[in-house]
């Protein structure tokens, strides 16, 4: 195990700030649109997948971005990754990618998995739209993370990361926002497998930063930054990539292309009772707690975007 810097927040959460209350409403609106109005969205529901992509493009454009599209096909079905970029004003070739997959698994409206991650990505894009970071920030919505395309060449993040490698892009960090909207203060609500259950909390009220051992220094950096700037429980794990769950999102695709990548997650199936079920609906997503996480991530990303190393 690689020890994490600082201390996870303990005790009652402070009152929400006015900015966090507004952020919670924004996140709720995105989750409701994606999971409540559009619902199940994947290559088996191509019309819904296209509606979700259109919603993301429209949201980016509304916030003033020139929207980029990366179309590709899966068995004759059109898919696309959608991106928006804030160009760095000092080191523009150094890129930080903040990404989330917008598809849902078959049979599920995918509110927490992963409308919550997309909502966070869209809110962060809006927050940085008028800023001037030293490094380039790139906000990306990926198609096809869920089975049966998971960890195949048709996974949207794999298509994107492969193009980045072919272009010779210098991606310093990819943050995968994956299932970040469910928390519980009930003892025993967190269900890690052995031996992780001996190391991490058994109460599922924290946000986790997760990567492989090779990216341990980045996990430490992110956790340390989050703990300095956010009053919310947090854990970090730099683990072997074969440990169940460690590589189960879009960060895996960036690992495969040699880029450093970290997942931010509520731990999904190790906590969330509606994981990959039809019951994964907007009412289960806790947007007030998610707002605390996203406001903390905003501070972390701002720090990373201006860091000298």
Overview of this protein structure:
The chain has about 300 residues and is of the alpha/beta class. The protein has a single domain, classed as Aminopeptidase. It has helices spanning about 20-40, 45-60, 110-130, 155-165, 215-230, 250-255, 285-305; strands at about 70-75, 75-85, 90-100, 135-140, 170-180, 205-210, 235-240, 260-265. The chain has an eight-stranded mixed β-sheet with strand order 1-2-4-3-5-8-6-7, with helices on both faces. It is globular, with a radius of gyration of 18 Å. The relative contact order is 0.19.
CATH fold group: Aminopeptidase
* Residue windows where pLDDT falls under 50 for at least 5 positions: none
Helix/sheet category: alpha/beta
Mean pLDDT: 96
Report strand %: 15-25%
First CA to last CA: what distance? 24 Å
Largest sheet: number of strands, sense, barrel closure: 8 strands, mixed
What is the N-to-C succession of helices and strands? HHEEEHEHEEHEHEH
Q: In one word, what is the shape?
A: globular
The first-level CATH class is given as Alpha Beta
Number of domains: 1
CATH superfamily: Zn peptidases
Question: What integer value in Å does the Rg equal?
Answer: 18 Å
Helices, by number, come to: 7
Across the major sheet, the strand order is 1-2-4-3-5-8-6-7
Number of strands: 8
Which characteristics define this entry?
309 residues, alpha/beta, single chain, 7 helices, Aminopeptidase, eight-stranded mixed beta sheet
């Amino acid at each position: 195990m690689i020890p994490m810097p600082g201390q996870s927040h303990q005790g009652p959460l402070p009152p929400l700030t006015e900015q966090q209350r507004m952020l919670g409403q924004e996140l709720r609106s995105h989750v409701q649109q994606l999971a409540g109005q559009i619902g199940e969205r994947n290559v088996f529901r191509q019309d819904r997948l296209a509606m979700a992509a259109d919603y993301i493009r429209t949201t980016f454009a509304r916030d003033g971005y020139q929207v980029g599209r990366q179309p590709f096909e899966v068995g004759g079905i059109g898919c696309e990754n959608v991106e928006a970029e804030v160009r760095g004003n000092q080191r523009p070739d150094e890129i930080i990618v903040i990404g989330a997959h917008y598809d849902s698994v078959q049979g599920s409206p995918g509110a927490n998995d992963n409308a919550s991650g997309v909502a966070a990505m869209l809110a962060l894009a809006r927050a940085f739209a008028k800023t001037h970071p030293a490094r380039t920030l790139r906000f990306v919505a990926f198609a096809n993370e869920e089975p049966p395309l998971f960890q195949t060449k048709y996974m949207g993040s794999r298509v994107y990361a492969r193009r980045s490698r072919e272009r010779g892009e210098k991606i310093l960090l990819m943050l995968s926002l994956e299932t970040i909207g469910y928390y519980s203060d009930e003892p025993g609500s967190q269900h890690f497998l052995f031996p992780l259950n001996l190391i991490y909390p058994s109460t599922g009220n924290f946000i986790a930063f997760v990567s492989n051992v090779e990216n341990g220094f980045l996990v430490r950096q992110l956790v340390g930054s989050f703990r300095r700037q956010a009053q919310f429980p947090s854990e970090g794990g730099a683990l072997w990539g074969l440990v169940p769950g460690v590589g189960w999102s879009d960060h895996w695709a960036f690992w495969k292309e040699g880029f450093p990548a970290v997942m931010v997650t509520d731990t999904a199936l190790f906590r969330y009772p509606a994981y990959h079920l039809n019951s994964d609906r907007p009412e289960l997503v806790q947007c007030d707690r998610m707002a605390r996480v996203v406001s903390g991530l905003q501070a972390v990303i701002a720090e990373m975007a201006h860091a000298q190393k």
